[in-house]
Amino acid sequence: MEKVFRDPIHGYIYIQDQIILDLINTKEFQRLRRIKQLGTTSFTFHGAEHSRFGHCLGVYEITRQICDQFQRNYPKEIYGKDGWDDSERLVTLCAALLHDIGHGAYSHTFEHLFDTNHEQIGIEIILSPTTEIHQVLTQVSPDFPEKVAAVIAKKYPNPQVVQMISSQADADRMDYLRRDAYYTGVEYGNYDLTRMLRVMRPYAKGICFKEEGMHAIEDYIVSRYQMFMQVYFHPVSRGMEVILQRLLERARDLYDQDSHYFKQHCELLVPFFSQRYTLEDYLALTDDVLLTYFQLWTKAKDPILSDLACRFINRKPFKSIPLPSQLDQRKLRGAKVILQKIGYNPTYYSGLNDASDLPYDIYRSRIHHPRTQIELMRHDGSFFELSTKSEIVKALSGETIIDRRFYFPREMVKPTQTLEQNSEILRFQQWIQQTLDRNVTKL
Question: Closest by alpha carbon to 443, among 345, 338, 319?
């Protein structure tokens, strides 16, 4: 059999195994259509409305191409332990397709607030006998779900399989860079994917690249860096994420005071507020469900809940300023006191956000672990790590980049009605200017 999906990134996505089509048609996988790939980024880049569904198909397609290339050029029958065992193909493709199956509504904000873990939940979805995904996987063999889960957990015995889906140059990153660049409208993520796949090869310890492909790998690393700095770390997207977090925190605090309203109007959130959620509860919550609740909260009696919901629904992001690496906590507390005097509860109307806390990692060659190194193979069969020969990558991987920002209501940089409030806002703006002067950065 062969089915195809039309895709803006890969042209066609080829489905050649019935189990892959059956997995796509499960309710757990179809749920990914209702979860955005980039969360609040669409508030900054309006085209970024793409879903995790499309990304998972893309990761599958890249993995399929890698498996075909490995079997064609490096079969185990000829290359032995440095070759590709095509009996691993099906478990690899299933793991690629399902690698993000555990992501939830506004996943990374939700995880931080309610202590969920999308990787653990993804493994639970695969292993739970109640899910359609598990039932499809067991059609291959009774232990097949455990094999797929082991790949996602990075515990599968074959490092080639694991690194194809989870490494510094894996199918996951290869797809999301191209896909996110396409939908955000930027050019940074358009590295040479075709060349990278041509120079990729298996070896006993996992996956490496031929030495002649080094410039394509450099281009990929630079693309990652630019996407991080220009898209994933964008201050406005993070400002909307701070509002989202504060909105859910306010709702949870109100639930703790009086649960009746939420039990009556927001029943799908109640299990998370009470910390008694099941897998079924988790799967029922998607971005569209939360947005429906947020729209409802715009008319809530609680002024903070209503205001934060309006800010999120109507795209009124918090403003921000960059903070120095050595943060003066006393001065930060002073800024929050000013917010309090003007009438903004700083618990809900301010926030610190570190770019390094976002769910992306910039290439780090010095972290000694086989999944964090990009190895290149010379013609004589010896290896070298990418940054030892590439000055570009060495420069990018030399320092950890942290963009720490303090977020606050945008009204704090505009005049208000009363003289008393204006004087406090003036004090706040003076604090902003002093902070900016220390960072030599524009607001």
Answer: 319
Q: Six-digit token pair at 256?
A: 């703790």
Q: Residue type for 280, please? A: E
- Residues 426, 430: Cα–Cα separation, whole Å: 6
Q: CA–CA separation, 370 vs 163, rounded Å?
A: 9
Asked if residue 401 belongs to a domain, the reply is no
- Distance of alpha carbon 287 from alpha carbon 109, whole angstroms: 12
Mean pLDDT of 99-112: 94
Please give the backbone phi and psi of residue 396, each rounded to the nearest 5 degrees, phi first: -70, -30
**Between residues 190 and 357, which one has the greater pLDDT?**
190
Q: Which domain holds residue 40?
A: 3-233
User: How far, in Å, are 69, 222, 353 from residue 362 at the CA level?
Assistant: 27, 10, 17
Q: Which residue among 216, 233, 250 closes a domain?
A: 233
Please report whether residue 105 resides in a domain: yes
- Do 247 and 309 touch, CB atoms closer than 8 A? yes
Q: Is residue 365 part of a domain?
A: no
- Asked whether the beta carbons of 407 and 348 are under 8 A apart, the reply is no
For residue 77, give the H/E element and its range: helix 76-79
Q: Which parts of 299-385 fold into alpha helices (H)? A: 303-313, 329-342, 346-349
pLDDT tens column, 24-78: 999 999 999 999 999 999 999 999 999 999 999 999 999 999 999 999 999 999 9
240 located within any domain:
yes
**Rounded to whole angstroms, how far apart are CA atoms 407 and 143?**
49
Q: How far apart (Å, rounded) are the C-alpha atoms in residues 247 and 236?
A: 17
Q: Each residue of 170-184: pLDDT tens digit?
A: 999 999 999 999 999
Edge-to-edge strand ranges of the sheet holding 383-385: 200-203, 206-210, 375-377, 383-385
Secondary structure string (H, E, C) spanning 240-265 = HHHHHHHHHHHHHHHHHHCCHHHHHH
Q: Which of 194, 218, 233 is the last residue of a domain?
A: 233
Q: How would residue 433 be classed by pLDDT, with cut points 50, 70 and 90?
A: confident
Tracing tokens 């029943």 back to the chain, one arrives at: 267
**Helix/strand/coil for 353:** strand
Pairing relation of β-strands 375-377 and 206-210?
parallel
For residue 180, which of 101, 116, 217, 234 has the smallest C-alpha distance?
234
Q: Residue 287 belongs to a domain with what CATH number?
A: 1.20.1250.30
Query: Helix, strand, coil: what percent of the chain each, to 5?
Result: 60, 10, 30
pLDDT score of 397 more than 90: no
| pTM > 0.85: yes or no | yes
